[in-house]
Write a structure and sequence with these properties.
The structure is a homodimer of 306-residue chains. Chain A has 306 residues and is of the alpha/beta class. Chain A has 2 domains: 12-173, 3-Layer(aba) Sandwich (Rossmann fold); 179-299, N-(1-d-carboxylethyl)-l-norvaline Dehydrogenase, domain 2, CATH 1.10.1040.10. Helix content of chain A is 50%, strand content 13%. The first copy, chain A, has 14 helices and 9 strands. In chain A, strands 1, 2, 3, 4, 5, 6, 7, 8 and 9 form a 9-stranded mixed beta sheet that branches. In chain A, strand 2, helix 2 (47-51) and strand 3 form a beta-alpha-beta unit. Chain A is elongated and about 65 Å long. The termini of chain A are far apart. At the A-B interface, strand 9, helix 9, helix 10, helix 11 and helix 12 of A face strand 9, helix 9, helix 10, helix 11 and helix 12 of B.
């Protein structure tokens, strides 16, 4: 048995999880010419894609029954486990040599469990989390980090190219998720630095806009500083990426690190500050809201600063 | 009394502190056509500039006697205080309307002390720390962050342009130093993130070079990641910027923050990890050596990893 080649117009794709990210990514695949069957827990979020010609299924298993390759983009690891390995999950119906691709940011251990379960059914699995947020998804500029076997990774090239700009194979099952954890460790610490720097600038009486001109383009520069500091200064806490999802990601990274006997004190601190942000009722804001937890720590409200 | 205009070939400049940074910056001013009198505690480090035509003085006061404007680029705040306000310091001999410019990264409080002392002698002072490291100094691509009064800042335009690429006036005396603290707060947290991310990548069995391809150009990207992660992976700990100077900078920022009633837990953690690095005898390595303190924390030697 060999892998079927993946051809727009012939290969049938499935998509589970049509939230902000999933919707854009799925739409790119459809525009490339793939026939698509979709499922989402809340049907309201499927309408746009149905309008574009997607078939709506009533369970993940039904998606699998109609598809050669099934993509998953849901919220939390327990959702991933449910839609792939649960009672009405993808693996109950996926055909032999079918491929399931989990693009949710989830646990490397779970990716390995799925890999073994897929193998047992003569199927393939890849873990392929992404970085780049809602904008990256919309503009098909995602970084896609892939773990699993190289053959299905290569076979899916037309799909990766429809959704992403940087596509890297990272190694065995779980390696895509591990790479995403590296990404989140970087962002977590960058966010603490960005918010502490903005607090210091404010409290020392500097003009933060002039300060950004001095620090953005040099050795202190980062994507976070260029893209999120202006939102912090404008009290714009609309979610590009939800606090509660970031807390989940950092929790996974800390648990994995503990398992590998690795202490990550900076990540642990960032995680706790974000947990505090949730405790203050801000779990559905964007990650740049961290400044509010840090301001509260020093006894003031960032939004009401003078 | 008004400020003299600053003209290459006519205005006489002084330079105190001809280490790695100072030497390059001073040489740029000389190439622009300024006559230069220099001083350094260790004479060996002045030879190259003397070869280019600089006059050597035997005290900071003697530099001031020969100069309309004196630049200072030394190591620590106590050195700054000594060469500007000490017994044989710049302010004992600087002429009325002369300007002293401290480009050392130093305390905002000290910058304000110097400003007042200069005023009392009818002189001007500016605090003008820089970012960009030895390479930025060499290539005249520094970011220069200036505090003090706007008039001497504007007057010195030909000098800034000879040394830097991004030159910003940030406000009253001390504001240049405060802005540099913002810069260092960003870098400190970025460095923790970078090192923790590289440790996680290593311990989870990923190929760090492939990982960098996935994470560098997206939302986790930063100057530190692009420039220092490759050195970390190559066990290259040669100093672009000394650990001991970074510890000094973070100490100043934490002390200033405490004075402003501002808690900066991320900076405090980074500071402590760098203090640990000094305790392990690595204060004269580059800041990227932080990975060794973090690896030691988890019980292994980064340089002897397999």
């Amino acid at each position: 048995m060999t892998l079927p080649s993946i051809v727009p117009g012939r290969t049938k794709l499935g998509w589970i999880g049509t939230g902000v990210m999933g919707k854009s990514m799925c739409a790119h695949l459809m525009r490339t010419g793939f026939a698509m069957t979709i499922y989402n827990r809340s049907h309201a979020k499927t309408q746009e894609l149905v309008g574009l010609g997607a078939k709506l299924a009533s369970t993940p298993a039904e998606v699998a029954q109609q598809s050669d390759v099934v993509f998953v983009m849901v919220g939390f690891p327990h959702d991933v486990r449910q839609v792939i390995m649960g009672e009405d999950g993808v693996l109950t119906k996926l055909r032999s040599q079918g491929i399931v691709v989990d693009m949710t940011t989830s646990s490397p251990q779970l990716a390995q469990d799925i890999f073994r379960a897929a193998k047992a059914k003569n199927c393939h699995s890849l873990d392929a989390p992404v970085s780049g947020g809602d904008i990256g998804a919309k503009e098909a500029r995602l970084s896609i980090m892939v773990g699993g076997e190289r053959e299905p990774f290569e076979a899916l090239k037309p799909c990766w190219e429809a959704m992403g700009k940087t596509v890297q194979f990272q190694g065995a099952a779980g390696s895509g998720q591990h790479t995403k954890m590296v990404n989140q460790i970087l962002i977590a610490n960058n966010m603490v630095g960005l918010c502490e720097a903005m607090l210091y600038a404010y409290r020392s009486g500097l003009d933060p806009v002039e300060v950004l001109k001095s620090v953005s383009s040099g050795a202190a520069g980062s994507w976070s500083l260029s893209n999120l500091a202006p939102r912090v200064l404008n009290n714009d806490f609309a979610p590009g990426f939800y606090v509660e999802h970031f807390v989940k990601d950092m929790g996974i990274a800390l648990e994995e690190a503990r398992r590998m006997n690795l202490a990550l004190p900076g990540l642990a601190l960032a995680h706790q500050l974000y947990v505090a942000l949730c405790a203050q009722g801000m779990s559905r804001l964007g990650t740049q809201a961290l400044i509010q937890a840090l301001a509260t720590l020093s006894g003031f409200d960032w939004r009401n600063r003078t």
